[in-house]
C-alpha cells in the first residue's frame, strides 16, 4: 500500500508498505530519518519516540498505515534551522547525553512534558520519562536538563 | 585535610581546560538525530540479513529445509553450513598478540553441523529488505540430533575445576593459614552468595554493515575495539589488515558487550562475500541475547574471622564462575579481596565450570562487580556481629600496603573517601539497630560499601597536527561509547599546546587513523592521554627547534622545560611567540608529530610496574533504602558516592561515568537477571520487557564526588573511571536492606520475595 503523511512539516509518501510495517520502519528505512532509534521494537525503551498529531508515541508500536494523513514530528524536526530547541540545548549542556542512542526519544518525550507542564516537579519528570530507558547516564543529568529547559522556556 | 571537590567545583588550579565540566563535542549531533550509528548508513544495492538460531543446546544438524524461505519473494540467499563459504578458524590466543583475544567464541559459524549453544546461528537469510529477511528466517526448518548438554550452572557448581592464573590475573593465593585462623577466631561470619547472569543491554543493539570491494572490506559497526575487530576480520577472511577498514564513529553504548567479535559481525561479512552485495545485519534485541555473551553467574563463599576489636584474623574468599566449552572469559571474582583488607591470613581460590552455553564475556567491572558484592556484604555482616560501625570496621582494617604481597599502593585514599562521604551523607544520623528507622510504612536503612577497580593503561598511537591558521587536529582510532573520548582528549591537547579548545578537532572511530587502545578495562582515556602528551611534547619541540634557528626569535636559547604553552604559542614569562609566527617565519604551513609507545615497550613497562605497585580507582558508596514493611518493595531513596579516581579531566563526563555505573549496580542489586532455562540452556527473558534495567522512576538523586588527587604513576594523574562506579553498589544496597529489615539477602537480585 501507499502511505502518505506529513513529517516535520513536509508531505512524504512511501510505496509498497507492508501491512505490518511500523511507522518507525518507514521513517528509518524509507524516508531517511534515522534519528528515531530502534532498540527494542516492543515499546519498552522509548528510543523511537515521535509526535503523532502532537502526541508522543513509540513509533515502533504504530502501524505505518495508522499515520496516513496525519502529522509526524521527529527529533530531526525540533530544531529551527541552526537553532536548537531548548530541550536539545539543555541535554547537551547538562551532560544528559552520553552514547546518545536513547537521546532522541528522551528529547521528544521531554519536549512534550514541558509543553504541557510549565514547571514540572521532579516526580512529574521521573514519571513522564519512566518509559525512556537510558543505560549510560544514571538519569540524574537528564532530570537537570529537563528542569533547565523548562526554566528557559518559561522565561521566554 | 585536603580540599574536596564535587562535579560542580573544578579544581582551583584548573585555570585551563583539564578539570573543567566542558560540554561534549558531539552533543549537537546526538541531540538533533544527525549522528549516524552503524545500522544507519546506506549503500546502493544493500541487502539485509537475518539469523536463524539453534533451538537445542548441543547437537548435530541433521537437515536444513530452506525451501520455504527461498520461495519468499525478495530472498537473495539462504546460507547454511551446507553452502556457506568458509571462514578461517579463530586464532589461538596469545598475550604477545592481544588482538588474538578478540573472538567472542571459537565456533566456525556455518562451517560445521555442530551446535554448541541454544541460540547459535545456524543459517543466515539475505534479502532485499530487513522484514523479508526476518520473515524468511522464520520459515527455515532445522532438524537436530540432540546430544547431552551441561547447561545448569547451579547443578554443575560442585564439579568446578581450579581456574588458571595468568600474568595479568592471579586466580588465587594464600597468606598464612586462613582456615585455622578462621576456626580460632572469636568472632566470625561464613556466608554463601550467588549472583545471576546478566546482560549489558546497551541501548544500541549490535549492527554491522559489510561492504566488499574486490578483496577490500569496509565494515560499519559500533565496537569497543576497532583495532581488534580489524585484525580479527583480516585473519578470519584471509586478507591483510590494511585491506580492512572499520568505521565506528558512534557507539550506542557497550559496557563490554561490544569489546569482542561475535557471530553477527562475522556472518554479515560472510553474507556480503557470498552474495556480492553490501549486507546489513542489525540484530534484534533478542538476537543480542542469543549471540552476544553476558556476565557469568557466580557462587561465592566469604568467611571472615576477627578478634573482639574487629581486627581481621582471617579472610577466605572463594568463587565458582562459568566459561563455555566454546570460549569465554575467566573472571577475577575474588580480586577485591587481594587488595581491600589487612587480614592476618588470607585464602583465595577461583574455580570454573564449563557449560554448553554461549561464552560469557566482560561486563562492566568483570569480577570486581560481583566479587565486591560478596566481600562487602560479608564485612557488613561481620560489623553487625561485632556491634561495630561498618565504616569503623573498614577503617581498622585499612592496609598500609597491599595485603597479599606487601607491594606499595601508588595512591590510596579510602579513609578520606569514607570520612568525607560520611559527613556529606549524614551517616551519623543512622541508628545502628536494624528496623529502628521508619518513615510511615517504610523501613529505612543505610548501608555502605567500598568501590575498588584496578587501573590499567593500554598503548595508543596519536598524531597531532597544528596548522599555521591555528587549527589543531588530533588523530587516534578511539571509540566513543558515551564517555566523551574526543572531548577529553581535546581538553588535554588544548592545555598541552596552549591553544583554545575550539581550535582542536579530535578524529576518532576509523581504523585508518593511528591505532588507539580499546574502550575496555577503564583504560582508554589514560592510554590515549599518554599518546597525546607525547605527541604534543614532540610538536612543541619541533616548533621550538624552528624558532631557535631564527636569530630574532625571543625563544632563542630556551629549552622546552622552561617554557609555558599558552595563548597559541610558547612563552618564557612575558617573552615568546605564537606558533603562527614561528611557522610563518619558517615558511611552513603546519607542524605534525606522532606519539605513543610500541606494544613490547608498553608490556615491559606494565609488567615492571606491576612488580612494584598496586594501583586502583576506589571509593565509598553510601546508600539509603526504604523497604515497604508489608510488600517487601525496596526503593533506593538516596545515594552518595565519594571516589578517589585520580585527576578528573572533565567533571561533566566523569560524573556521568560514575553515576551510570552506580545505576547499573542498582539494577544488579534489585532487578537484573538473565534467566537461563536449566533444562534447555535457552535464555527465557531476551527482551527489555522481561530483563529489568532501572528506569528513571526507580532512581533517586545520586550525588557523586571525588577527591581529585592525581595518581603519581598515571598520565596526568588520571585513573580510569568507567567501571569503579558499579563496584560495591550491590553490597551497599544489600547492607542498607539488612539495616532496614534485619534480613541479610545473599542471592541477587534482592527481589521482594526474598524479604517476605
TrEMBL record, chain A:
User: Can you name this protein?
Assistant: (2Fe-2S)-binding protein
* Domain 2Fe-2S ferredoxin-type, residue spans: 1-78
**Molecular function terms, GO-annotated:** 2 iron, 2 sulfur cluster binding; metal ion binding; oxidoreductase activity
Task: Please give the coiled-coil regions recorded for this protein.
Answer: none
* Assigned keywords, A-Z: 2Fe-2S, Iron, Iron-sulfur, Metal-binding, Oxidoreductase
Q: Which InterPro entries match?
A: 2Fe-2S-bd, 2Fe-2S-bd_dom_sf, 2Fe-2S_ferredoxin-like_sf, 2Fe-2S_ferredoxin-type, 2Fe2S_fd_BS, Beta-grasp_dom_sf, Diverse_Oxidoreductases
- Organism the protein comes from: Nonomuraea deserti
From TrEMBL, chain B:
Q: Which InterPro entries match?
A: Ald_Oxase/Xan_DH_a/b (IPR000674), Ald_Oxase/Xan_DH_a/b_sf (IPR036856), Ald_Oxase/xanthine_DH-like (IPR016208), AldOxase/xan_DH_MoCoBD1 (IPR008274), AldOxase/xan_DH_MoCoBD2 (IPR046867), AldOxase/xan_DH_Mopterin-bd_sf (IPR037165)
Is Ribosomal protein included in the keywords of this UniProt record? no
UniProt KW keywords: Molybdenum, Oxidoreductase
Point out the coiled-coil segments of this chain: none
Superkingdom as given in the UniProt entry = Bacteria
The GO molecular function terms of this record are:
iron ion binding; oxidoreductase activity
Q: Which Pfam families does UniProt cross-reference here? A: Ald_Xan_dh_C, MoCoBD_1, MoCoBD_2
UniProt domain Aldehyde oxidase/xanthine dehydrogenase a/b hammerhead: residue ranges: 32-148
Q: Which PANTHER family match?
A: ALDEHYDE OXIDASE 1-RELATED, XANTHINE DEHYDROGENASE
Query: Under what name is this protein listed?
Result: Xanthine dehydrogenase family protein molybdopterin-binding subunit
Q: Which organism is it from?
A: Nonomuraea deserti
Amino acid at each position: 500500500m501507499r502511505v502518505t503523511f506529513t513529517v516535520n512539516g513536509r508531505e512524504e509518501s512511501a510505496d509498497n508498505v507492508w501491512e505490518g510495517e511500523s511507522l518507525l520502519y518507514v521513517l528509518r528505512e524509507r524516508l531517511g530519518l534515522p534519528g528515531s532509534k530502534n532498540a527494542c521494537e516492543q515499546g519498552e525503551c522509548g528510543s523511537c519516540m515521535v509526535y503523532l498529531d502532537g502526541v508522543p508515541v513509540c513509533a515502533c508500536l504504530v502501524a505505518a498505515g495508522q499515520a496516513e494523513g496525519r502529522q509526524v514530528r521527529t527529533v530531526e524536526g525540533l530544531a529551527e534551522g541552526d537553532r536548537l530547541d531548548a530541550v536539545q540545548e539543555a541535554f547537551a549542556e547538562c551532560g544528559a547525553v552520553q552514547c546518545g542512542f536513547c537521546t532522541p526519544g528522551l528529547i521528544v518525550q521531554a519536549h512534550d512534558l514541558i509543553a504541557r507542564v510549565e514547571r514540572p516537579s521532579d516526580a512529574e519528570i521521573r514519571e513522564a520519562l519512566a518509559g525512556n530507558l537510558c543505560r549510560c547516564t544514571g538519569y540524574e543529568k537528564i532530570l537537570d536538563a529537563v528542569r533547565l529547559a523548562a526554566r528557559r522556556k518559561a522565561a521566554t | 585535610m585536603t580540599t574536596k571537590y564535587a562535579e560542580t567545583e573544578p579544581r582551583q588550579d584548573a585555570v585551563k581546560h583539564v578539570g573543567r565540566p566542558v560540554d561534549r563535542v558531539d552533543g549537537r549531533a546526538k541531540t538533533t538525530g544527525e549522528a549516524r550509528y552503524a545500522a544507519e548508513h546506506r549503500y546502493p544495492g544493500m541487502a539485509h540479513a537475518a539469523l536463524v538460531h539453534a533451538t537445542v543446546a548441543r547437537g548435530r544438524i541433521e537437515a536444513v529445509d530452506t525451501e520455504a524461505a527461498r520461495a519468499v519473494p525478495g530472498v537473495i540467499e539462504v546460507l547454511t553450513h551446507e553452502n556457506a563459504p568458509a571462514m578461517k578458524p579463530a586464532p589461538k590466543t596469545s598475550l604477545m598478540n592481544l588482538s588474538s583475544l578478540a573472538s567472542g567464541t571459537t565456533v566456525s559459524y556455518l562451517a560445521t553441523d555442530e551446535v554448541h549453544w541454544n541460540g547459535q546461528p545456524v543459517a543466515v537469510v539475505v534479502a532485499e529488505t530487513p522484514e523479508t529477511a526476518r520473515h524468511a528466517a522464520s520459515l527455515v526448518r532445522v532438524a537436530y540430533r540432540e546430544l547431552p548438554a551441561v547447561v545448569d550452572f547451579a547443578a554443575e557448581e560442585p564439579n568446578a575445576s581450579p581456574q588458571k592464573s595468568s600474568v595479568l590475573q592471579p586466580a588465587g593465593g594464600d597468606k598464612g593459614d586462613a582456615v585455622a585462623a578462621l576456626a580460632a577466631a572469636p568472632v566470625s561470619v561464613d556466608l554463601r552468595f550467588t549472583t545471576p547472569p546478566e546482560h549489558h543491554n546497551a541501548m544500541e543493539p549490535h549492527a554491522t554493515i559489510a561492504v566488499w570491494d574486490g578483496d577490500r572490506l569496509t565494515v560499519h559497526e559500533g565496537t569497543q575495539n576497532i583495532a581488534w575487530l580489524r585484525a580479527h576480520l583480516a585473519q578470519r577472511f584471509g586478507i591483510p589488515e590494511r585491506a580492512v577498514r572499520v568505521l565506528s564513529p558512534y557507539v550506542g553504548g557497550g559496557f563490554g558487550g561490544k569489546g569482542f567479535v561475535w557471530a553477527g559481525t562475522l556472518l554479515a561479512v560472510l553474507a556480503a562475500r557470498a552474495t556480492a552485495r553490501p549486507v546489513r545485519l542489525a540484530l534484534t534485541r533478542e538476537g543480542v541475547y542469543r549471540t552476544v555473551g553476558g556476565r557469568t553467574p557466580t557462587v561465592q563463599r566469604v568467611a571472615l574471622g576477627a578478634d573482639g576489636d574487629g581486627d581481621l584474623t582471617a579472610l577466605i574468599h572463594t568463587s565458582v564462575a562459568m566459561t563455555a566449552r566454546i570460549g569465554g572469559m575467566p573472571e577475577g571474582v575474588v580480586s577485591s579481596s587481594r587488595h581491600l583488607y589487612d587480614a592476618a591470613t588470607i585464602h583465595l581460590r577461583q574455580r570454573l565450570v564449563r557449560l554448553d552455553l554461549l561464552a560469557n564475556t566482560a561486563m562492566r567491572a568483570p569480577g570486581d562487580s560481583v566479587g565486591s558484592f560478596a566481600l562487602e556484604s560479608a564485612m557488613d555482616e561481620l560489623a553487625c556481629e561485632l556491634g561495630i560501625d561498618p565504616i569503623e570496621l573498614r577503617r581498622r582494617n585499612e592496609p598500609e600496603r597491599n595485603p597479599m604481597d606487601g607491594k606499595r599502593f601508588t595512591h590510596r585514599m579510602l579513609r578520606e573517601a569514607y570520612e568525607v562521604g560520611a559527613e556529606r551523607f549524614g551517616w551519623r544520623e543512622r541508628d545502628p539497630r536494624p528496623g529502628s528507622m521508619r518513615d510511615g510504612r517504610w523501613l529505612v536503612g543505610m548501608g555502605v560499601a567500598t568501590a575498588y577497580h584496578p587501573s590499567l593503561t593500554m598503548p595508543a598511537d596519536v598524531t597531532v597536527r597544528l596548522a599555521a591558521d591555528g587549527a589543531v587536529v588530533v588523530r587516534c582510532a578511539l571509540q566513543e561509547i558515551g564517555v566523551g573520548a574526543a572531548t577529553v582528549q581535546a581538553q588535554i591537547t588544548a592545555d598541552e599546546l596552549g591553544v583554545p579548545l575550539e581550535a582542536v578537532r579530535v578524529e576518532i572511530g576509523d581504523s585508518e587513523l593511528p591505532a588507539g587502545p580499546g574502550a575496555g578495562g577503564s583504560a582508554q582515556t589514560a592510554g590515549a592521554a599518554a599518546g597525546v602528551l607525547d605527541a604534543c611534547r614532540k610538536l612543541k619541540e619541533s616548533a621550538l627547534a624552528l624558532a631557535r634557528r631564527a636569530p630574532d626569535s625571543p625563544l632563542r636559547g630556551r629549552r622546552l622545560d622552561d617554557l609555558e604553552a599558552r595563548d597559541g604559542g610558547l612563552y618564557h614569562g612575558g617573552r615568546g611567540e605564537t606558533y603562527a609566527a614561528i611557522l610563518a617565519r619558517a615558511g611552513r604551513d603546519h607542524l605534525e608529530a606522532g606519539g605513543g609507545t610500541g606494544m613490547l615497550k608498553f608490556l615491559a613497562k606494565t609488567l615492571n610496574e606491576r612488580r612494584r605497585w598496586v594501583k586502583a580507582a576506589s571509593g565509598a558508596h553510601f546508600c539509603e533504602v526504604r523497604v515497604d514493611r508489608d510488600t517487601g518493595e525496596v526503593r533506593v531513596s538516596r545515594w552518595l558516592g565519594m571516589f578517589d579516581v585520580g585527576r578528573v579531566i572533565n567533571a561533566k563526563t566523569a560524573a556521568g561515568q560514575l553515576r551510570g555505573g552506580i545505576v547499573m549496580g542498582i539494577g544488579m542489586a534489585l532487578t537484573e537477571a538473565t534467566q537461563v532455562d536449566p533444562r534447555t540452556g535457552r535464555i527465557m527473558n531476551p527482551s527489555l520487557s522481561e530483563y529489568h534495567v532501572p528506569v528513571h522512576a526507580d532512581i533517586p538523586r545520586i550525588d557523586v564526588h571525588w577527591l581529585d588527587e592525581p595518581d603519581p604513576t598515571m598520565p596526568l594523574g588520571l585513573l580510569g573511571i568507567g567501571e569503579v562506579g558499579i563496584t560495591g553498589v550491590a553490597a551497599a544496597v544489600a547492607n542498607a536492606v539488612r539495616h532496614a529489615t534485619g534480613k541479610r539477602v545473599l542471592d541477587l537480585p534482592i527481589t521482594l520475595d526474598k524479604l517476605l
